[in-house]
Amino acid sequence: MILEIKTPPRASGRREPLAWADAEPLLTAREAAALRRCSISTTWRDVKAGRLPPPIYLAPKRPRWRLADVLPAAPTAEAERIPAARAAATAPAQ
C-alpha cells in the first residue's frame, strides 16, 4: 500500500506584520548609540543611570528601543557629558 502525504498549501512567504510594528520604529543598541552619537557602552550606562528608558526585549538578547524614547535623550545625554568632559580636561592636575 502506498501512502500519499499531502502537504498544506504554501503561504506566500510573507508573514503578517505585527500590530505594533508600524506604530513606531524600534532601534537596536547600535542604532540608538549612533543616533545619540555615543558608544554602545554609554547607551547601556545611560539606561542604568535612568537617562534612557530600558529597552523592549523582542527575544532574549534582542533589546530594542522605541525611536520616540531615544530622540529626547539625545540632546540631554550630549549636554550632560560634554560640559563634564571639558571641566575635567581644563581642571588643573594636582
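[next item in queue]
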Amino acid sequence: MLQYRLQPVGNFRCDYATGADFCDAFVTSTDSSYLLAFLLTANHEAAERCFVAALDQAFKANAVFKEWATSWIRRILRRRRLQTPG
C-alpha cells in the first residue's frame, strides 16, 4: 500500500484582502472596471449602478486573497450584471 508523506510547506502565508486593498484595487483599475461595466450594460447609468454595487459588495467580501482583489472586482461586476435586469 502506498503511503503519502506530507511535506512541510515552509513559511506559507495567505494574506486576505482588506477594505484598503479593495480600495487600492478600485483606484488602480477604475477606468478598466467602469469600461467593463459599461460594455456589459451598454448604458452609462446602468454601468454606474453596477459599478457602485460591485464596490459595495467587494467591501463585504471576507475570503479573497489580496493578489486576487482586481480579478474579484471584475467577477463581481459580471455577476452584478447577470443579476440586474435590463
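[queue empty]
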